[in-house]
Amino acid sequence: TNTEVTSAFSAVLNWCKTVLISNQPDHILPTLSRSLYSTKDDLIHAVLKEDLQETLKKIQSNFLVALRILKFSLDLVQEFGNSQNLTITWTQEATKQFSKIQLMLTKAYMINLMKLIETQSIYNMPTIGMISGRFQDANFRSVLTPGVMADVARRALKSTQNGDAQKITPTFLVKQTNAHFSASVDWAFQAFKHSKLAEAKKHWSLLLKTVKQHDEHWRKFADERQRHEAIKETQFFFNTTISELTMNELGSFSETHTLDENQNRDFQGEHFAKVCRQSLKKDFSMREDALHDPDLLCWLDDKGSTFGRLMEPIRVEKMHSNPDLIIFHNAFSSKQCDLIIDELEKMEQVQFYESGEFYGHHRDAFSDLNASIPTLNDVELGGATAYPEIGTFIKPVKGTATLMVNHNPDGTIAQSMTHGGCPVVSGVKWVGVKWLHGPSKDGGGNRINEPSQ
Ligand SMILES: O=C(O)CCC(=O)C(=O)O
Ligand SMILES: [Fe+2]
């Protein structure tokens, strides 16, 4: 929840109000208004009319902005407050809230850092490939901002220059960035403050330069074995440290973030990563040996009508037999996809991923049901569904639906249908998950057409 942000903000506003009502010196107001509003009039209007919804929304959606405002206000109190003799309570309150928010930020920051590190490990991808084009987003969200990226890169580079490049493991990065947390936030502030294009570009090119240098070192040390070790280390650190932080320091902020058990990086985890890496490079979804497998075929499905045959037959691709894994390439129109997102969201049957988010390899829990996974948008980069046992992947293309038969004919869960969502690198991913009774269970009610020669 955003209770802390809201009450911290109310504390700031109460102070503003007192300042305004008690006719404070004119030079306080422009400074104050810069932190929240573009003009002094805006500030006076908002505070006196108590028309604060918009500002609250702005602040609640971005901890970095909230933190900046609070930090700024604290400076103001220190500078002008004592002479006004009205700040003791407010200062105490604001300081308390300020530190809470900072902790929340630390946690959000570390989670994002983990996403970055995991994504980089899975794809073995240079950082530079992960950050291009993301600056636009930086004003409104704290997910993988240039500040986070720059910090990772800066710390990695620094350790490289000190001659301990081997220490560039996720644990090292997390420890370092945690210790130097405030420095990285400052960097982010600079980026926000100078959000004019020219300034942004300057920051950006500095960042890119640093990142490039880091990547050269990353490549050197990124052989399979070392990454595998590094990921195990990360997981340990992540599970212990984050939950300690949450329990001991965040108090009422109770949401704990732990990695899904299924994301245990066993040998198959490396397969998952491998298939994800392939998916970034290739455009087709058919597995490598598919052309020689008589069971795997592509055909057009006319949905049982002449009209369907003429107008819009579905292109069907069979990726695996016994049990079946089948792609329906043009199952939905773009408009239908948009509607489906709305509908499934209400039923909580839609899965949403942002940059760095993924769903580790797993088997779906119901042995008697099949999964249909409609892809509801196009993803800029990443986000394929990987099948490590089969050694194939399905790219997320808007309007495609995958049918996955989750069970063997005897009803047991099919090992071969182990799957997971690869990290989204750029863009977002919406997929629906729909559970269906399949042909082998209900005797053919939903039978899909077999290819007709
Ligand atoms: O996001 C994906 O590609 C897969 C989603 C999935 O496997 C699930 O929701 O069970
Ligand atoms: Fe699944």
How large is the count of helical segments? 16
Helical proportion?
40-55%
Overall mean pLDDT stands at 60
The largest β sheet comes out as: 6 strands, antiparallel
Judging from the principal axes of the Cα atoms, what is the shape? globular
> How much of the polypeptide forms β-strand, as a percent range?
5-15%
Low-confidence residue ranges: 60-64, 83-87, 127-153, 159-201, 230-267, 439-453
Tell me the structural class: alpha+beta
Ions and ligands? 2-oxoglutaric acid, fe (ii) ion
* Cross-sheet strand order for the largest sheet: 1-2-3-10-6-14
Distance between the termini: 58 Å
Number of domains: 2
Q: Tally of extended strands?
A: 14
Radius of gyration: 26 Å
**Can you write the helix and strand succession as a string?**
HHHHHHHHHHHHHEHEEHEEEEEEEEEEEH
Question: Can you put this structure into words, describing what you see?
Answer:
It is a single chain. This protein has 453 residues and is an alpha+beta fold. It has 2 domains: 1-259, no CATH class; 285-442, Sandwich (Jelly Rolls), CATH 2.60.120. Helices cover 52% and strands 12% of the residues. It has 16 helices and 14 strands. The chain has helices at residues 3-21, 28-36, 40-49, 53-60, 63-84, 88-123, 127-131, 146-161, 170-179, 181-193, 197-221, 224-249, 267-281, 306-311, 334-346, 439-442; strands at residues 298-301, 314-320, 325-328, 350-353, 359-362, 370-374, 381-382, 385-387, 392-394, 401-404, 419-421, 424-426, 429-432, 434-436. The strands form 4 sheets. A 6-stranded antiparallel sheet has the order 1-2-3-10-6-14, with no helix packed on it. The chain has a 4-stranded antiparallel sheet with strand order 5-11-8-9, covered by helices on one side. Strands 4-13 form a two-stranded antiparallel ribbon. The termini are far apart. The site of 2-oxoglutaric acid (AKG) has 9 residues, from strand 11. Fe (ii) ion is lined by residues 362, 364, 419.
